[in-house]
């Protein structure tokens, strides 16, 4: 079987309890001084970018030494080799489905309004919400400022996380969030949609429009932000992400994959057929993926599948979003 490596991050790490106790991994007064010097440089750069001195001071006061828990999570992510079938069983559990049905039913009107406003399917909104934060119940308990500062100082991608730290300071000022209330994953992904600060600045939206986007507590803002993200990445209104298909085992794996987009008529000629009914009438072409190879599940995926991948560039993730969204909306 074809296998895919998956680094467990995101939702798996949202289970971590809040941890503020830390020790500087480099040890001693010299290490403390080096971290203080690093923070002073961040503070100067942030003020130079227009962030107020009061916001900078309040935020950076939350981090006095690199957070060991953050570094451990970053450096020791368990690597698993999962098939699609194993991944699906893990992330699309019966509990995830049942919780989703209940959550969507309670918010059906709000989801419908935002779906109509942005032209993005309710299923995609609900599926991302479910996978990213278990319908808003698991957003992470790390201080985003502390986590990003730690990774910017001593992480594997220091320049990336320094840029995200500076953007997080802008978010504090723009969103009016109390620095201590900006919580997220060990890697700095924030709120119910798990936006990095750069994504917040680019895609966060309020509903109704005009206010500050609160992606931690305001579900209208959460759904509007996810919808705005997908819409600006090219979501095609009224079209599906994909559907399950039967594929003859004789069809070579080399003819499959996201890049192999062909007319639906061509796929029919190869013996590909939907599991239920006929191909969706709103689309004319697609690509067939069979993640686990011959004998495994297969799907024909359309343009919107690739838009979901803009949120997280994984076929497994996009399939899970699509299937979860279809099941709970």
From TrEMBL:
Residues 37-326 form the Transglycosylase SLT domain. Residues 1-21 form the signal peptide. Gene3D superfamilies: 1.10.530.10, Bacterial muramidase. Transmembrane segments: none annotated. SUPFAM superfamilies: Lysozyme-like. The keyword Signal applies. One of its GO terms (biological process) is peptidoglycan catabolic process. GO terms for molecular function: peptidoglycan lytic transglycosylase activity. Keywords: Signal. It holds the Pfam family SLT_2. This is Lytic transglycosylase.
